[in-house]
Amino acid sequence: RVSRTHCEIVVDEHGYLVRDLESKNGTSLDGLRIQGCYLKPASVIGIGDVLLVFLPAEEQAQVALAGADRFGKLVGGSLEMRALFANLERIATQDATVLIEGETGTGKEIVASEIHAHSRRKGAPLVTVDCGSIAENLAESALFGHVKGAFTGASADREGAFREADGGTLFLDEIGELPLELQPKLLRALEAREVKPVGGASSIKVDVRILAATNRDLADEVRKGTFRQDLFFRLDVMRVRVPPLRHRRGDVPRLVETLLLRSRPARGGAETPRIADEVLAMLASYSWPGNVRELRNFVERYLVFTPTGVAGAVELLSGASPGDASRAEQPLLRLDLPFKE
Fold first, then answer.
1. What is the separation of C-alpha 298 from the centre of its chain, rounded to a whole number of angstroms?
2. What is the pTM of this model?
3. Residue 326: what pLDDT?
4. Nearest by Cα to 234 from 192, 187, 194, 189
5. Cα–Cα dist 81/124, whole Å
6. I need a labelling partner for 108 at 20 to 30 A (CA). Which of 102, 149, 235, 335 fits?
7. Which residues of the chain have pLDDT under 50?
8. Share of the chain residues as helix, strand and coil, in percent rounded to the nearest 5
9. CA 315 → CA 165, 310, 327, distances in Å?
10. How far is CA 321 from CA 23, 181, 190, 298, 312, in A?
């Protein structure tokens, strides 16, 4: 009477959330059928004919934290980032496959780069394949290579990403975008550690470590039928999640300082401008839907226009220049003020 993946309980900042996963006969909470609802102690969850009593244990979870507030190019003194750094320190030295999750703009590609840089393969290539930008008809060739004459336009042999990364690391960015028909071939390559070029007669052994990143919930994509379950489990050996910037706003001032310092070579070593404390406070209160990428864009605009106060900095958040005529009649949204004000 219970679906294979019937429901799940996840923990967020509000508590314990039980969610039905499109099960055949539904999930109930205290006798009422639900799609999703927060639990309280002694709540009764119904799945099929089974009743489960929810009793959270009163215990303290011990989370390992890194002693440093950076891991290579990754910066952050928040608990979320120090926990991430502690995981990366362990994971980097192993050869296990890693699945990197996180919203767009959180820096998943930098996490992959630092895992490689701290691994025993750091002297070998790190090859990146953006699965979301490859033309569907060229994806197999991009990954596995092809031989001359394999198809129209194949005027020479091509090694492909797996062979280019031989001895090193292959980073499959946005793996959730990989076409469904190519996923069985990728699974075989991961299992056998060998690839067969398009039009080739034999397979070629490769020695690569696999890192994959996604901004999608791959488990949900499996349920929808857009991602193979066996490939998901093959990738989900080690999993790390990069927290969104809104969950670590205390890191914003340090990130701004780091981005300003990194911009000095491009500015010919010019003195780094100082950002006023009230502007930093406003930035720390902003929700950053574009995450660190949006913050980096803001810093680049700030270096061009160097606004003198909070009002000008708020305008820069939208991409407009301070005093832009197109925004002159729009009310100023003071993100540094409490919601009530």
1. 20
2. 0.81
3. 47
4. 187
5. 27
6. 335
7. 325-330
8. 35, 20, 45
9. 44, 9, 8
10. 50, 46, 48, 11, 8
